Amino acid sequence: MSTYRDLTQRGATRGAALRTVGTRERRSHLTAPRVPTVGIDIGGTKVMAGVVDADGTILEKIRTETPDKSKSPKVVEDTIVELVLDLSDRHDVHAVGIGAAGWVDADRATVLFAPHLAWRNEPLRDSLQSRLAVPVMVDNDANTAAWAEWRFGAGRGEDHLVMITLGTGIGGAILEDGRVKRGKYGVAGEFGHMQVVPGGHRCPCGNRGCWEQYSSGNALVREARELAAADSPVAYNIIERVKGHVPDITGPLITELAREGDAMCVELLQDIGQWLGVGIANLAAALDPSCFVIGGGVSAADDLLIAPARDAFRRHLTGRGYRPEARITKAQLGPEAGMVGAADLARLVARRFRRANRRRAERHERYERYAQALRGGTEGRTSRTTQDPDS
Fold first, then answer.
1. Beta-bridge partner residues of 235
2. Inter-residue contact 259 to 304 (CB < 8 Å)
3. Which member of 25, 116, 137, 242 has the greatest number of CB atoms within 10 A?
4. pLDDT in tens, 302-321
């Protein structure tokens, strides 16, 4: 694992380096150091860490369950440090990027709120930097996934991209001209909490009718379980598959049965896809991107989900028939996207940090030369005085 000197100045240097990254993301990846970095994706159930090279290739990946039922900040932090140190035993790691499932402030230092972790105004970046000898970057996991898809996946070549991640809820991110748009306070892209049905289903966020209550993994499973619990005849197949134990119904099982042709599961995915298309049409009216990339676990349903989403998008798009339509495509990097993107964004911080260290070393070297010249001049005058006392 790479280490750096001047540890007392390290924290301030990294903080200043990170603040400059956001304004230069557009082309900075082209000149970032081609060094391996660690990306970490933190969710409510798992922590995945991997060493990623400059081409987005995963050199090694390890994962563990998110520790402890309370998921306390200290316990999760300990897990992150252990994973980084483990990978550093076999790789020369130059920076660490964290993709966190929560709201991260504009400085990418503090997790303001994480719905599935006990993080409330948690200074994650500084806590980790005090324990690791490399610079650390923290960002929202949807932002890191979108960056990865733009750099290495389905969004390559796009100037205006919106990513939507369908998992337990809905996350999102906006890239414009090769820069992640984080908003004034760092929490842009929380599309899942747009209200699409006034007075609709209650959302854990406290509001009603949020988009993720109609187009997410939770929505998909909720609908299937309600039909099964009501002993609906259309749910016979899935009830039989789980032997009558309704809590065993999961998103992957619904997708599997839909691929086998189960009518109810196909219809449920179509419903989720149609609500997805409605939300995408709203986002197109507000943001007008050229491409929507659909990621997250639910996207594994492929065209069972994406095809109805495209149809609903065309039906609800403002000005339909008289404007260009954004491309809607499935993400290519799968569940590793957040990890790969976090590692790649961390590479930009590594460059800033290395440059700051180099400049500090150059200043120190110039000072030493100057001091040495002064000492040499003083020694010369002393020598002449000793040889010619009468002068």
1. none
2. yes
3. 137
4. 999 999 999 999 999 999 98
